[in-house]
Design brief:
By secondary structure, the protein is mostly helical. The chain has a single domain (20-104, 111-170), classed as Cobalamin adenosyltransferase-like (Hypothetical Protein Ta1238, Chain: A, Up-down Bundle). The chain has helices at residues 26-46, 51-72, 86-100, 116-141, 146-169; strands at 12-14, 20-22. Strands 1-2 form a two-stranded antiparallel sheet. A hairpin with a 5-residue loop joins β1 and β2. The longest helix is centred in the C-terminal third of the chain and has 26 residues, at 116-141. The chain is elongated and about 50 Å long. The model has no long low-confidence stretch (mean pLDDT 93).
Length: 181
């Protein structure tokens, strides 16, 4: 099987149900942004020397594929079985709580950065927020799994918590925002 099909050469692509849509359809834009986030997490995984954190990020990468599938499945395709549900949100919330208790409580806004791993996670967090905005826009025009938006909202919080935890693991202090500059 060849990698290319030539079906997208005129600016159209397929949703999972087979429906052809423009490559600038908001669902495709949201899926592309989730793919971008997944790539950023792959870069973070490649530099992560902490087994628990690495395993969390790998699991999230798999879940992001499910998230993209939920966005790319038109409701008109029939009885849709969503891949992302409450159990995913519950796990993200537990992981946020677990990571947060490991670090010094925040007393001010912090700059994104610190260790290389933390900086990559902060960048992932920002892209996750963009994906969330596109998912919200998708939900305004299409019937999408509402858990997609909730998942992305929690994931951005988790990536923030994991960035702080990564800094702690690597002995790097968070840099507070100096609002006087």
């Amino acid at each position: 099987m060849k990698l290319y099909t030539r079906r997208g050469d005129l600016g159209k692509t397929d949703l999972l149900g087979g429906q052809r849509v423009s490559k600038v359809d908001i669902r495709i834009v949201a899926c592309g942004t989730i793919d971008e986030l997944n790539c950023l997490l792959g870069v973070a995984v490649s530099s992560c020397n902490h087994a628990q954190l690495k395993n969390q990020l790998l699991r999230i990468q798999h879940e992001l594929f499910n998230l993209g599938a939920d966005l790319a499945m038109p409701h008109e395709a029939g009885d849709v079985i969503w891949r992302v549900g409450d159990e995913h949100i519950d796990r993200l919330e537990k992981e946020i709580d677990d990571a947060t208790v490991q670090v010094v409580p925040l007393r001010a806004f912090i700059l994104p950065g610190g260790s290389e791993l933390a900086a990559r996670l902060h960048l992932g967090r920002a892209v996750c927020r963009r994906a969330e905005r596109f998912a919200v826009e998708s939900a305004q025009t299409c019937d999408v799994n509402p858990m997609v938006i909730t998942y992305l909202n929690r994931l951005s919080d988790l990536l923030f918590a994991l960035a702080r935890w990564a800094n702690m693991l690597e002995g790097v202090e968070d840099v507070p925002w100096d609002h006087g500059l």
